[in-house]
Structure formats: C-alpha cells, structure tokens
Write a structure and sequence with these properties.
- The protein is mainly α.
- Helices cover 52% and strands 8% of the residues.
- The protein is globular and about 75 Å long.
- The two termini are 16 Å apart.
Length: 304
C-alpha cells in the first residue's frame, strides 16, 4: 500500500524505484564477490559452482547499467502475470541499448547478454515477490482457482462488485485454409462452442479480475458524482471534472475506493464459484494484510 501511494506521504512514492534500488543493491553485492573457484577445469565444476560463476559474471556485466527503465516494464506487467521469459526479454532490450551506447558489440556478446538478462530477470522477480508478498499471494490464488475451473472445460466467469457478469472469451481457434487459383486465404472460426484455451483462461484471469475492480471503482465514482450534480468524465484511471470541483471529486473517489475494498470481495467470489462448481475444492483465501484503508482518504498522491 505504501509503495503505490495508498498512505499519507509528503511526496509521491515510486514503486518502480523501490524495486530498482533493491535490484541494484543485490547485483552490486554479487558483482563484488571474490569467488574461490578454479575455472581452468570447467568440466570438474559442480552444478553449484557453475551457477555461482554464471551469476557473478552476469552481475559484473550488468552492474552499473540498471536504472528505473530496466525494471519498469517487468514491474508494470507483473499484475498481468509476466513470465520469466517475458521479463528476460523486456530487460534484455534495455540492457542491449545501454551496452550499445557504451560501444559494445552486442552481436559478439549475444550469449553473455542472454545469460546476464536471465539472471537479472530472476533477481527482479525475486525482489517483486518479496516486496509485494500479499499481492503475489492473491494473484496466485486467483490463478489457482482459474486453473480449477478451466479443468472442467468451462471459461472463468464472475460477477463484478457492481453486478456486471464477466466471462473470459478465450477459446482454441480453428483455422481453415482455402486455396484458390490466385491466393491462399486463412479463415478463423471463433464460435462459442470451441474448447476453451486453458492456459489463457488461467494467465488472463488475475489482471482481468483486477480490471473489473478498477472499472467498478470508476463507475461507483461516476454514480456518486452524478448524484451530487457534478460533471464527471473518465478514461481508465484518469478522472476529470471542472477545476472548481476537483477537491470534491478527490473526496468522492477516495470514499468510493474505501467502500469498495472494505467489502468481502474475494470471499464473495469464492462463494459464487463454490455454488457453481460444488465438486471442486477451492483453496483457502490468502491472508488479509494490515493496511488501514481509511488512510487512503488522507493520501494526497493516491490520485494525482
């Protein structure tokens, strides 16, 4: 909560910088290590020794190259279930840019860069897991439940807090190739009777559920603004009103946020699924954190 400006601070908090600082610290610590390993006989090294050498080389290559931009995309897409492979690709693009700017031939160093960015992706994801333990537990719970539902051949469905039903549309598409004298045309069958795409049902559910909460917050704010006779417009998480009504809108959106998240959102979600799938045993809910939601009402940088 503190990292994403849900608490009162004199200046805005930057979740990306928090991750960056810890990644820099760990990489610098690894790069400074003096390993007592004989590299002259690589075939005789143990697995642990090879891993230690690889990590040390990766840290020495990337030490001093890490900034906010290197970790930003990985942190930003963590809520979308970014994988290790995806994180490595994101980080590699930035590291290659920095190495090229320093005059390195990145084509000659391809294997070294690849290994180094794999190391950096692991460190970044480890840091995120430790800094955002509660969020990670909730995402894992949502994904586990989605996996159980998709195992029944059913798409993941739920009711948003404002009563709107949502059903994930991801199914295995059927391509048909039609060959003519002039060209080859591929048609895709997207009908609702196709088998579900289990992997996409699972990976997409945590971010989709969070989006349904975000949109519920926006609509609850819009309804309350309308009830007060105030002008309101919004796009995603950008809320607008006339300058003279900004302070009141700030109060409204904070009150709506607290009201929304004070409710038993995950408890109701689980109860709905248990009624719909009585044969499935869903895991216990993740533990609640100790953040006082009412702090949001005094947090100046919650919405900026």
């Amino acid at each position: 909560g503190k990292a994403v400006n849900l608490c009162k601070y004199d200046k805005p908090q930057d979740v990306y910088s928090g991750v960056m600082e810890e990644v820099i610290r760990r990489v610098a610590k690894e790069a400074d290590k003096l390993l007592d390993i004989d590299e002259s006989k690589p075939d005789e090294l143990t697995k642990a020794e090879r891993e230690a050498l690889a990590n040390n080389r990766a840290a020495r290559l990337t030490n001093g190259l890490i900034d906010r931009g290197v970790v930003k995309r990985t942190v930003m897409t963590s809520v979308y279930g970014v994988t290790y492979i995806g994180a490595k690709k994101q980080i590699q693009e930035k590291i290659e840019e920095k190495l090229e700017a320093k005059g390195y031939d990145i084509d000659e160093m391809e294997s070294e860069i690849y290994a180094a960015c794999g190391y950096l992706a692991r460190v970044t994801m480890d840091v995120m897991g430790e800094l955002f333990t509660g969020a990670r537990q909730t995402m894992n719970w949502l994904a586990t439940c989605a996996r159980l539902i998709s195992s029944q051949g059913q798409p993941v469905a739920w009711i948003s807090p404002i009563g709107i039903p949502a059903v994930q549309p991801y199914r295995k598409k059927q391509p048909y190739t039609i060959v003519t004298l002039l060209q080859t045309v591929v048609l895709i069958n997207n009908n609702a009777n196709l088998p579900i795409h289990k992997q996409r049902q699972v990976s997409a559910f945590p971010p989709n559920y969070v989006h349904s909460l975000d949109s519920s917050h926006m609509l609850l704010t819009a309804l309350e603004m309308d009830r007060r006779g105030l002008t309101f417009s919004a796009v995603h998480d950008s809320f607008w009103t006339h300058a003279c009504d900004i302070d009141e809108m700030n109060d409204v959106l904070r009150d709506c946020f607290v009201d929304l998240y004070s409710g038993p959102l995950l408890e109701e979600l689980k109860q709905t699924w248990e009624l719909q799938y009585p044969s499935l045993e869903f895991p216990d809910l993740p533990d609640r954190g100790n953040l006082d939601l009412n702090e949001v009402k005094e947090a100046p940088y919650f919405f900026q």
